[in-house]
Amino acid sequence: LNSQRFKMLEIFIINALSDNYVYLLRNEQKNITSVIDPGESEPILQFLNKKKWHLDEIINTHHHYDHIGGNNKLLDLYKSKLIAPSYDYNRISNIDVPVSDNETHNIAGISTKVIHTPGHTLGHVCFYMPEEKCLFSGDTMFYLGCGRVFEGTMDQMWSSLLKLRSLPDDTYVYCGHEYTLKNSDFCLKYDPNNTFLKKKSTKVSYKSLFEDFHSVDLIG
């Protein structure tokens, strides 16, 4: 289990399912604990029980089951507030706070901008915390790649990636899956002479994802 400390938050990275990442946010000063995209409940429950923390908020980036599968059990146990895209209101049950593009909401006590990023799904959103310099990109953007386009169009996905590229270069990006090795292989297959990719591919390991993870590396 990895974690990173920022100004107000400590972010814990929890492995779930086969290759999902779940993010648990702890604001010790305000005594708020939040979880982003709980694809399953058990590893989150184990962690919360160990820490003896109450879960105040659940946040979803989109409606796919591997990102919301743990919602109901966590809601039943903790009566948490559920924050999710307004665009998925009929696809994610029990939403308390539906959020839309360019809105600002407090998540774990931190001012957070909502960025609508259609492509992977039509309702997908990302959550950006300017003060903490953190982006939770769900399945829109990964290290060396982007999410598969299921419901949107390629043009929509490209527009969504351009939105994320406009964020500051020192933004830490927390994505929804560990696809780094596969993405590296795919990129080199079609762009074998790219020196940037060659350099990055030599450093790829399952531990490297969060060692140097900035938006400038992802989209250029």
Keywords:
disordered C terminus, seven-stranded mixed beta sheet, 220 residues, five-stranded mixed beta sheet, alpha/beta
Explain what you see.
With 220 residues, the chain is an alpha/beta fold. Helix content is 26%, strand content 29%. The chain is built from seven helices and 14 strands. The strands form three sheets. A seven-stranded mixed sheet has the order 1-2-3-4-5-6-7, covered by helices on one side. α5 packs antiparallel against α6 (195-201). It starts with a strand and ends with a helix.
Task: Write a brief caption for the model.
This protein has 220 residues and is α/β, with parallel strands linked by helices.
Topology:
Blueprint: E1 2-5, E2 10-16, E3 20-27, E4 32-36, H1 42-51, E5 57-59, H2 65-68, H3 71-78, E6 81-85, E7 97-99, E8 104-107, E9 110-116, E10 125-129, E11 134-138, E12 141-142, E13 145-146, H4 154-165, E14 172-175, H5 180-190, H6 195-201, H7 215-219
Parallel strand pairs: 4-5, 5-6, 6-7, 11-14
Antiparallel strand pairs: 1-2, 2-3, 3-4, 8-9, 9-10, 10-11, 12-13
Helix pairs in contact: 5-6
